[in-house]
TrEMBL record:
It comes from Papilio dardanus (African swallowtail butterfly). This is NADH-ubiquinone oxidoreductase chain 2. The keyword Mitochondrion applies. It is a multi-pass membrane protein. It comes from the Eukaryota. InterPro entries: Complex_I_Subunit_2 (IPR050175), NADH_UbQ_OxRdtase_chain2 (IPR003917), ND/Mrp_TM (IPR001750). Residues 26-283 form the NADH:quinone oxidoreductase/Mrp antiporter transmembrane domain. One of its GO terms (biological process) is mitochondrial electron transport, NADH to ubiquinone. It is an enzyme of class 7 (translocase). Its EC number is 7.1.1.2. The chain crosses the membrane at residues 12-41, 62-83, 121-143, 149-167, 174-192, 198-218, 239-260, 272-293, 314-336. The lineage of its organism: Eukaryota, Metazoa, Ecdysozoa, Arthropoda, Hexapoda. GO terms for molecular function: NADH dehydrogenase (ubiquinone) activity.
Amino acid sequence: MSPNINSNKMFFYFILIFSTLITISSNSWLGCWIGLEINLLSFIPLISKHKNLLSSEAALKYFLTQAIASINFLFSILIKMILLKNFEINNFIAIMINSSMLMKMGSAPFHFWFPNIIEGLSWFNCFILMTWQKISPMIILSYYMNNNFLMMIMILNAIIGILGGINQTSLRKLMAFSSINNLGWMLATLMISENLWMFYLILYSFLISILCFTFNLLNTYFINQLFIFNMNSMIKISLLINFMSLGGLPPFLGFFPKWITINFLIMNNFYFISFIFVMMSLIMLFFYIRIIYSSIMFNYLKLKWFKFYMKNNSMSLINFFSMISLLGMIISTFFFM
């Protein structure tokens, strides 16, 4: 999954990490805004490539959507500073700030840019956009949230993430809608506790990284590429384990944070949200199983010019992480008994 590293890319990756740290450690709204802008300007050179029109288009779309969200955020904090004594307008300001952060994350109903942009990125940049780029907006969201508004957004995320993913043939778009669905869970964890949100994000990042790493090694971007006859059967089993884990099926590792989240939601009497989350997870598991079932049962005869090579150390790494994904829930249960 590692890109071709050069000094320019290393510089921008450093700025990307540094800008997130600026945002989450800032003690003023303006400092948060500056961190978000640095983050935007460091990510655009990483996703744009001169010889690839799709990535250039993705960079332009990303810039425009993030700029609109930043303007909205700046406008909101300026109104908040000017009308600080007027408490009646606080609810409106909270919704404005929340909306701009949700747009930055690619959350429903501001998600329209997210799958289109991911379609033009490499797997490594997809991984960054689905995980690291969500940290800053989430932290800002936790400072000033409107609970009723966020509950509605959580349900929308869970439903739209499923509806968008059902008829997808592109793996990147499928991962994007899966990310939108998981964003609903993350918002729920953020409302409960920041520690629980961090735990969910770390485990989700781990599961997404395995899949992105595998797809990058296989140079796979569409579902029908998983049907190839001479693909190693261990890779297909590994994909089965990781898809099931990402869907939240017990006893895989991905079930663990979802189990804790549902437990907390039920303890706080959010029965309807818990029901929606569980039902949507079942539908998500259905189309993950459909992909894996097809890839195992269907076989395209290989063409003579098609050669499929994979380094042994890469394969063993995938198998090792898949084993963690498979046994993680069992091990963690012993820890928490």
